Amino acid sequence: MHQCSCRKSSEEMGLMFVSLQHGQRRARVTHAVIVIFLEFFAWGLLTTPMLTVLHETFPQHTFLMNGLIQGVKGFLSFLSAPLIGALSDTWGRKSFLLITVFFTCAPIPFMRISPRWYFALISVSGIFSVTFSVIFAYVADITDEHERSTAYGLVSATFAASLVMSPAIGAYLSALYGDSLVVLIATVIAVADIAFVFFLVPESLPDKMRLSSWGFPISWEQADPFSSLRRVGKDSTVLLICVTVFLSYLPEAGQYSSFFLYLKQMIQFSSEAIAGFIAMVGILSIIAQTLLLSVLMRTIGKKNTVLLGLGFQILQLLWYAFGSEPWMMWAAGTIAAMSSITFPAVSSLVSYNASADQQGVVQGMITGIRGLCNGLGPAMYGFIFFLFNVELNDTHPVKPVIPGPPFLFGACTVLIAVFVAIFIPEHRGPEPKACSATSSCAAAHAQNGSPLTTPTSDPEDIEPLLQDTSM
């Protein structure tokens, strides 16, 4: 009896140990948060050294070269994101998470080893710089639908928090100990991130959903980055929303790629001032996207919130275009934080108008538009700077009549976006009654004015498409 009791106790201990091990290996949102924080914290540290190295490496046509580098990276990310996302659906998330983190962080040590190789690797790394896509898929695997938006918000807030803190820390360390130490610390953090993914991040995709053998199990349609864009013209509301997103996000993507270089070289911001500017805009943007956005959505509605955000964006772009004093940039930065409500409001408007089985399709179109802008925007800004002979000079910057011509061009595109957004229907039409998938049913839906009824032909069309962001 005693022996049986001991044996039973031993078996229970073994089961508890196995259960504990299983619990430790279970994928959690915390894993995704740590990966994102380490990756973008490492890159945020390099904000100040990168501006210096960029100007030293390309003293002639600095803005043009910066635009080309960031443009190539963004366009390659746009092309590769669907392929990597589709492959991760069949081969698992962890392997592709490891690949994306490794190649995204690979250029960091080359900033001191060979600056030209550094910028070349940044451009090529765009093929794998889609960590957010894999991270969002990772989170979707381990969360229920009702808690997924909260988990996505936590990941996005972590990304914002890392970029709020790290540029200021990088600028402080650079001023005290030089850029080499900052690059070394960023490299160590990047290696720690890769090691964390390799050793501690468990696979999130269930075994039954993964292929047991390696092959090429996806179709070209799944990997085609332009597939979502081709659906745009099938519905007038979808078309209006996508045009609005394109015209408003194109200047925003270009602005992100060159604005800190513009502040440093043309407005004579110090490294500390740039770090403070990033922190201020980041903190205000978080407040705007949480407190202010919810209040506006309840009081003035989704569509009017979009229009208000676009109005803020026009004001900040005009101020950037004609402002020549530091205080003007700080004031415009405050308005820029207020304009950050635009895209969350657009996403909410899309979600409200779209039918339940079209959420993934329409959000995927919006994501595709943004990915395309990440390639076109930086190249456009660099070319406009070059076209207007806005060059950097070591003795004194050349200041034309319009200090920031790309920002003026961006304000014009956003103004057109406002006119387009006015025609977006705010209220969802009546839910169509269930009927068979016939041409007469489709005609009935069209007559009833049901919004966002983009037709789908494949099961993949109703799967949520992944969001992407590029650094």
TrEMBL record:
Residues 28-428 form the Major facilitator superfamily (MFS) profile domain. Keywords: Membrane, Transmembrane, Transmembrane helix, Transport. The keyword Cell membrane does not apply. Residues 447-457 have a biased composition (Polar residues). GO terms for cellular component: membrane. InterPro entries: MFS, MFS_dom, MFS_trans_sf, Tet-R_TetA/multi-R_MdtG-like. GO terms for molecular function: transmembrane transporter activity. Residues 446-471 are annotated as: Disordered. Gene3D superfamilies: MFS general substrate transporter like domains. Its main location: membrane. The keyword Protease does not apply. It comes from the Eukaryota. It is a multi-pass membrane protein. SUPFAM superfamilies: MFS general substrate transporter. The chain crosses the membrane at residues 29-48, 68-88, 95-111, 117-139, 151-175, 181-201, 238-262, 274-293, 305-322, 328-350, 371-390, 402-424. PROSITE patterns: MFS. It is found in: Membrane. Belongs to the major facilitator superfamily. This is Hippocampus abundant transcript 1 protein-like. It comes from Kryptolebias marmoratus. The lineage of its organism: Eukaryota, Metazoa, Chordata, Craniata, Vertebrata.
